[in-house]
Each structure stands twice: as C-alpha cells, then as structure tokens.
Amino acid sequence: MKSTGVFATADEIEQVKKAAQRAASTPVIAFSSKHALEKGGLSGEAWLSAKELCHKLALAHELPEIIGFYGMTNEGEFVES
C-alpha cells in the first residue's frame, strides 16, 4: 500500500468503520451461482460497497483517480491499494 499523506475526518473514519462492520457481519448468501461468482454473494456486495465509500471519500479530498480503490489505515490515512 502506498501512503498518500491525506487523512479522513473523524466522521469519515466512522462511516468507513460502520460500512466495514456491516460487511463483516453480512452472511455469504448467493441467490444463484452467477450471483456468487460475479458478486461474491451478499457479503461480496457489502465489501464492494465499503470499498466504494472509502474511494469516494478519498476523491472528495482531491486525491487523483486511480485504478482500483483507495483504502484507509486505522489512523484514517487514505492509501493506494
């Protein structure tokens, strides 16, 4: 992971933590084999939503668009993953 030196606000850190907690507690249920393979079931969709939220917040801090997603450290720093 590559450090950006840009940090999220306390509110943004809380939003990402809640999204990650939701994803961690979402069961791996798929409605079809296609849903399981393409999206990872409900759990995969929840994790994708958490990653997209973190990436959106990073872009709001004027970080450049990257291939993939921005992540966040425990200290709230956005990192390129």
Radius of gyration (CA) equals 14 Å
| Apparent shape | elongated
Q: Widest sheet: strand order?
A: 1-3-2
Q: What is the mean pLDDT?
A: 94
Look at the helices and sheets and give the structural class.
alpha+beta
Kindly, what is the distance between the CA atoms of the first and last residues, rounded to a whole number of angstroms?
A: 5 Å
Number of domains: 1
Please provide the count of β strands.
3
* Strand fraction: 15-25%
- Give the topology string: H per helix, E per strand: EHHHEE
Q: What is the number of helical segments per DSSP (H or I, 4+ residues)?
A: 3
Sequence stretches where pLDDT stays below 50 over 5 or more residues: none
Q: What percentage of residues falls in helices of 4 or more residues? A: 40-55%
Biggest sheet statistics = 3 strands, antiparallel
If you had to describe this structure to a student in words, what would you say it looks like?
The protein has 81 residues and is α+β, with helices and mostly antiparallel strands. The protein is elongated and about 40 Å long. The chain starts with a strand and ends with a strand. It has helices at 10-25, 33-39, 41-60; strands at 2-7, 70-72, 77-80. Strands 1-3-2 form a 3-stranded antiparallel β-sheet. The model has no long low-confidence stretch (mean pLDDT 94). It has one domain (2-80).
In short:
The protein is of the alpha+beta class and 81 residues long. It is built from three helices and three strands; from the N terminus they run E-H-H-H-E-E.
